[in-house]
Amino acid sequence: MKKFLLVELVVLISAFFILWASLIILKIVPDDIEINIISVEQEKNIGRLVFDSFYDESDIISNPTLDSAISKISQRLIFGVGKSDYIYQIFVVRDKEINAFALPGGYIIIFSGLIEFTENPTELASIIAHEIGHIELSHVRERLIKEIGLTTSFLILVNDPNIISEVGRIIISTIFDRQQESEADEYSMKLITKCNLDPHSIGVFFKRLMEGEKDYSFLSEFLNTHPSIEKRIKKSLEYKTPDGFQEDSLQIDWDKVKLSFK
Ligand SMILES: [Zn+2]
Fold first, then answer.
1. What is the dihedral of CA 201, 202, 204, 206, to 10 degrees?
2. Structure pTM?
């Protein structure tokens, strides 16, 4: 973190503490209130600010072929999710890394390198479903509370672009723990099955990733739980589909999608 940002952050936190202490002393707020709780609405506000900042700094790719493919995948998934507190928005950013992440509030960012590495649309759908899992299971909100807890309330009020950008960087660079990864995988496989797609795809994807070049070890989202990645692959490949399951594959020309942003 740059020095001036750190000073700015410390000043804001101090000011927030003083304000909060004053309110408690004056009995305006009860002293046993849990100040680190962030509501879904607050999460969405923070997500919007962080996404806007990310959007300005990134090379977002958009073309009719890619947009139509992402829309087809997300429509299928969102129908499967059913009732949700979130409105999902999926964006593709030009970056050769094989990565994806979820921002607070329902934003999912896919790296173009990830699309290039997938062999079919179901693999990408499985990764998006995994990210939806992190959001629906409140992993993203928990991470928000854990990483930037107290300052987030203030963040909404001050709307300082430097701080928002810094918060974005913290969120993006922080990894989920093993249990959360496992839960998101489980969520993905259930959702993918419900959407009549092949739930083993995520395992096939991870297996290819793991067996690939060692350069992939830097990946924050997919291989950060190593060595348990083998367990994740096994779990997915052995996942039992319910009786009568029939795959209804996504009719998307995947090579055409990949060529559309070359
Ligand atoms: Zn994950």
1. 170
2. 0.82
CA 76 / ligand 1 centre spacing (Å): 20
Whole-number Å distance between alpha carbons of 223 and 214: 11
The β-bridge partners of 60 are 93
Helix (H) or strand (E) holding 99: none
**Domain boundaries in the chain?**
1-33, 38-259
First to last CA, the chain: 34
Q: How many whole angstroms from 24 Cα to the centroid of ligand 1? A: 39
Map tokens 């329902």 to a residue.
106
Rounded-to-integer distance, Cα 176 and Cα 35, Å: 23
**pLDDT tens column, 151-162:** 665 666 577 777
Q: Which of 127-136, 213-222, 240-249 has the lowest mean pLDDT?
A: 213-222
Residue 30 Cα to ligand 1 middle (Å)? 37
Task: Identify the bridge partners of residue 107 per DSSP, sorted by sequence position.
Answer: 89, 103
CA of 222 to the centre of ligand 1 (A): 6
Distance from the alpha carbon of residue 176 to the mean position of ligand 1, in angstroms? 6
Inter-axis angle of helices 178-194 and 121-136, nearest 10: 120
